[in-house]
Structure formats: C-alpha cells, structure tokens
Amino acid sequence: MDDLEAARAALAGARSIVVMTGAGISAESGIPTFRDAMTGLWSRFRPEDLATEEAFRRDPRAVWDWYAWRRERVEGVAPNPGHRAIARLEALAAARGAPFLLVTQNVDGLHQAAGSARLVELHGNIRRVKCLDAGHPAARWAPDEHPPRCAACGSWLRPDVVWFGEMLPEGAFESAAAAAADCGVFLCVGTSGLVEPAASLPRVALRAGARVIEVNAEPTPLTAHASWSLPGKAGEILPALVAE
Ligand code: BJW
To answer: What pLDDT shows up at residue 38?
Structure first.
C-alpha cells in the first residue's frame, strides 16, 4: 500500500477528523500565498509593514488600500477541487457519524463557498470590516476615504483579520485545540507552519496519538513528524485522498 492509499484508508475509517488549512489550498484558486518565494504576497511587501496594528496606525492609507486590493481579488475567485474535497470529507464524516472540524488560517471565505459548514476561522475574514477602536462591524463605507470612518464611533475602519501581536477570535483557538487533542486523524494542508499558535495544532494532535497527514507542495517543519506526507498540489492530492 502506498502513502496515498494508507492515508486514504486512515481518513475513511477515522473516529473523528480535524483538517487544518493554510494559504496553499487557495493558491490554485489564484490567491497568492504569504511566504512562497516567487509568488507570495510578502515577496513584494514586508509583513511587518502591513499586517500589524502599528503599521496601520503608521500608514493607514497604505494598509487599507492593500487589504481593499486583496478583498477585490478574493471576491473574483472561486473554490478549487481542494476546497471541494474538504467539503466532501465533511459530508462523508457526517454520514457515518464521525465528528469533523475544519480549522482554517485563511481569510478568503473559499471553504464556505465550497460548502464547508463545520469550520473555525483562526485569523478572521477579509470580507468583513470592523472599526479599530471598538470593533463595530461595518457593512458599507465611503469609498473615497482611505480608510473610511466608523459610522458608530468615528474611528478608522480596518479588515476583520488577525494581525501579528493580536489575540485570535474568542474561543477559536480553544475549539481547534480541543478538537485536535481528541481526533483520530489530523489532516494539515498548505501551511508553512511558521505562524503560532496555529502551528502548534498538529503537534497537539501528534502528542494525543492522532495520525497526521500532511499535504504540501514543499517540506515544512511538520513533514518529518507526519504519519504520511503527501507532496504536491492540494487541488490534485485532496480529491484523490477523499475519493469515495
Ligand atoms: C501549497 C500549494 C499548493 C503552496 N498545494 N501546498 C510563539 C513563538 C514565536 C512567536 C509567536 C509565538 N506565539 C505567537 C507568536 C507571535 C506571532 C507569530 O506566530 N509569529 C511568527 C512569525 C513567529 N503570532 C501572533 O502574533 C498571533 N497572535 C497571538 O499569538 O496572540 C497571542 C498574543 C498576543 C499578543 C502578544 C503575545 C501573544 C497572531 C498571528 C496572526 C497571523 N496573521 C496572518 C495575517 C492575516 C491577515 C491577512 O491575511 O493579511 O495570517 S500572517 C499570515 O500567516 C496569515 C496566515 O494565515 C498565516 C499562516 O500562513 P500560511 O497559511 O502557512 O501561508 P504560507 O505562505 O506561510 O505557506 C503556504 C504553504 O502552502 C507553503 O508551505 C507552500 O509550500 C504551500 N503551498 N501552494 C499545497 N498548491
């Protein structure tokens, strides 16, 4: 039995499943990853210049415009076969009564668009906007302001994503960690495993005795510890891994 076969059998019979995804799963939908040398968003921009509250306070226009550009890009793309395979995995798990949780670091909403329902967004969602001071959600804003102001309190609007140095959404990490500590199989897809605390989740699963499957185009710090490492593109491997 090769690794794909063995991993497929483990997934099909798992008593419970946690899937964690990163930017790699959306790469084949046309969304640049963060750290890939040639195409990563931050090969052109330094993250510390854009994805922190300090950066936003220093240059609110540049940060707002960068996220506006990315939001537009996200709204113009569709889920790929990798996203759809994960939604199918959730349906198959539900059909046999196995608990399932998808934990995504992505802010693009493509898992929901593919039909995933049981999911936790660790780093927020770029399609939502809230105000900087009070977190008031905003559904519309003045398009000619960069950034616009909150209608409720007048503070700047910002994307509802988690920047470096910020806490994750309340309860998000706790739900993900509890599921990781109690799963039979943990499937980790398209993440470099460099950003904490998300990167700790496969380690939590391994310590609890779960089988860990990694799908990634490149080796990561997890690769040597995974039960099965499946190198390649998520959009090609996941449909084969989740074949009925
Ligand atoms: C493919 C593919 C294909 C390509 N198929 N694969 C412990 C130790 C050290 C530091 C810390 C620590 N704990 C916390 C920190 C600080 C910090 C941190 O982790 N820093 C590191 C850089 C070291 N963490 C935080 O600040 C977090 N908050 C926190 O811990 O709060 C508690 C706290 C608060 C205050 C003080 C102290 C503690 C928050 C982290 C927020 C991360 N936010 C971002 C931006 C979101 C908004 C936005 O979109 O702009 O989230 S950063 C960015 O990285 C984004 C991603 O979700 C995240 C992870 O990236 P990901 O998904 O792994 O993407 P890449 O590009 O890195 O990797 C892509 C992978 O795909 C590659 O492996 C490719 O090979 C692969 N691939 N194509 C399959 N087709």
So the answer is: 64
pTM: 0.96
For this structure, is 123 an active site residue?
yes
pLDDT value for 44 = 75
Q: What is the pLDDT of residues 195-223, one digit of tens each?
A: 999 999 999 999 999 999 999 999 999 99
Please name the amino acid found at residue 47: P
Residue ranges around ligand 1 (CB below 6 Å)? 22-24, 27-28, 33-36, 40, 51, 105, 107, 123, 161-162, 164-167, 190-192, 194-197, 215-218, 220, 233-234
Of 83, 111, 123, 136, the active-site residue reads 123
